[in-house]
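User: I'm curious whether this sequence folds into something compact or stays loose and floppy. Could you predict its structure so I can see for myself?
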Amino acid sequence: MKILVAMSGGIDSSVVVHMLKEQGHEVLGVRFTLWTDPLAPPLAQILPSKCCNAQTIARANQVAKDVDIPLQILDLEDEFKRDVVDPFLKGYKEGHTPNPCIGCNRSVKFGRLLELSDKLGCDKLATGHYARTTEEVQADGTTRHLLLEAVDSSKDQSYYLYGLSQDQLSKVMFPLGELQKSEVFALATKYGVPYEETSYKESQDLCFFPEKEPEAFLKRYITDSKPGDIKLEDETVVGEHKGIPFYTIGQRKGLGIGGLKIPLHVVRKEPESNTIYVAPDGADLKKELRAIDLRWVSWIPEENEEITFEARIHSLGTRRKGTLKHDGKSLLFRFNEGLRGIASGQSIVLYNGVEIVGGGVITEEMR
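Assistant: Here's the prediction. I'll summarize afterward.
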């Protein structure tokens, strides 16, 4: 097969290139450039834990040279800024906690990379994601493409991929989905992929700003946020916040609330009144949420029927059981137990065993 490999320059995509080349495929490489924060402190921009730094660029170039494949550069800066960064900032301004990786994978990375793959006449697009796909032939002879969790649950990235369409899934492959991360490192050593075992750090957190947490980035771009009250649900004022965008649902530390013996967690953000609401430990747990912008991977659950699924509200969070009911436009999910940190703007992803059924974006309606 003729396969285009997305080469970030990390260990994972580098191993994918070697694996596919060893299997006898015709391999082409593509490295993309994304928008990174120009206002970030200069020293912070070279952190090894972020992608698209000098180290990963050098590794991608070296791997392409070692296996003798062409490596194209795809400039996605404008699309990434428009479709990922700007909605991220807008979401925080409105009091949400957006998850930019899901939209990025669907529209920017897989969208543009599959366009290039088709243009180059490739049969498949391969990435270093930890996920799996499989096919099922239906009674009418049609084929549906399923998205599955990776074998290595600690590295599984299928949560971020629930938005991929059937057409996209039919054209992608995830060669690392059946492997443990330890096996990938062993393959990197076997293939001579350049990395320092003692100092190598994988890219983590969000890629477009250098800090681990988003607060510093948000402060650089959201400059009109004002302090306001932190209240209990009974409207008792217990403190003052620094600006609604700089707090997350479920947060306990860094609230600046003194004199109270019981821990408080952020449970609600109200931009209209510039108020953050907190509740004592236990009282902040929610069992029910609504979600919109529904996307189903390979089949759609029956509408207006209660169906049992497991669900995640974070990428590597524990799958929790509950019941789904949807009307085609929005869904209601009731967990069997209360959860902390259910935030509007994040995604709920539904699982049937290891199969990812679909998901949606959590709205402010939760209790």
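Summary: Residues 2-128+175-191 form a domain with the Rossmann fold fold (CATH 3.40.50.620). The longest helix spans residues 100-119.
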